[in-house]
TrEMBL record:
Signal peptide, first to last residue: 1-19
PANTHER family named among the record's database cross-references: ANTIGEN BSP, PUTATIVE-RELATED (PTHR24369), CHAOPTIN-RELATED (PTHR24369:SF210)
Lineage: Eukaryota, Metazoa, Spiralia, Lophotrochozoa, Mollusca
CC terms in the record's Gene Ontology section: plasma membrane
Record's keyword terms, sorted: Disulfide bond, Glycoprotein, Leucine-rich repeat, Repeat, Signal
Region (Disordered), start-end ranges: 369-390
Protein name stated in the entry: HMCN
Pfam family, one: TSP_1
Gene3D superfamilies: Ribonuclease Inhibitor, Thrombospondin type-1 (TSP1) repeat
Amino acid sequence: MFNPVIIILTVSTLHESYASWCTMQQQISCMCFQSTRISCRDQRTLTQIPSGIPTDTTYLYLTGNAISSINSTVLSELTSLFILDLKNNYISSIESGAFADLTSLYLLSLESNRITSMNSTVLSGLTSLNTLRLQNNHISSIEHGAFTSLVSLEILNLENNKFSSLKSGMFASLVSLSNLNLKDNNLTTVSANLFGSTTNLRELDLSGMALMCCSMIDLIKWAQNQTELTVFTGTCHDLNTTTDIDSFNSTICSVDGEWGSWSTTPCSVTCGNGFKFRNRSCDNPSPSKDGQYCVGNSTEYSNCRLRNCPVDGQWGSWSTTSCSVSCGDGIWYRNRSCDSPKPSADGKYCVGPSMESMLCNLGECRESCKESDKKSEWKKAKEGKWRRNR
């Protein structure tokens, strides 16, 4: 029969709830001390964070165990936690929001685990966190926004991970950051665009990496302008020379050209379909000291369409009527329409009449024709040879 070994440290000020919780652990040994502190260390049989931990615990040490994951609820009641130490476990999975309720947490240690990445919400809620230890993991990527909640963070240790590149703006939200350790990663360059426009950084450690000096000119110049930065550690290599990064002379580097902003011409027409150009120059910066010219086109064009062009109306063909009488003198008409094409988009209407008339004679009428009919047609004819109507 299994007989668990239980180690209990109690003092006169120990809360009854702590003494009771420690005594109840059957397969692990924990120490409860100084009223609200618990330590369960160096037990490879401890594979998950124990349940039922007193809710007013302030210090929780769970180092050297075999914990492999942290779910989103196991810590949610421990809102008084000040220090949470989980180093030297097997942690590879942390659910989103696992620390969301730990708004009083000051120090979080996850060092020496098996973490490979961190999503954007895994650290949410840690608004009071001062120190975050992530060294000695396998982290190769951290999602954008993962540090957004850490407005009080001053110390961040990412030493000995697997970073080969860092995303632009990765540390921009860490407005209180004073100490950043990136030592012993797989980086060959580090850019100033990692940081925000203002920073309180005092220590930056980039040692233990094969950094290329001339690819980090922006960071070197940035560091020279940081009045708070007193420790800038690391070496870089270029031109067959290894140099302390804080003393590298960037003027010896060749500079590759970079494109400036596009400038765009107006559309080639004032209406209808046309095209437009956009141009840019390789001057931001210009290449120097055998630096490469910009890659890509300096000019591009695209189609453009403006409002419909105005269309002036044009007359269609004439259509002619028959003579208005069957004998004698009469009138015939011809008509046309302004529809070849019709005017559109403020185009002009056709110029000229839409109808014309002229006299016609179909020969003398027979005797049976009434005299009054003849007089009527002759009266119309006397009005003019052509008559035009609009």
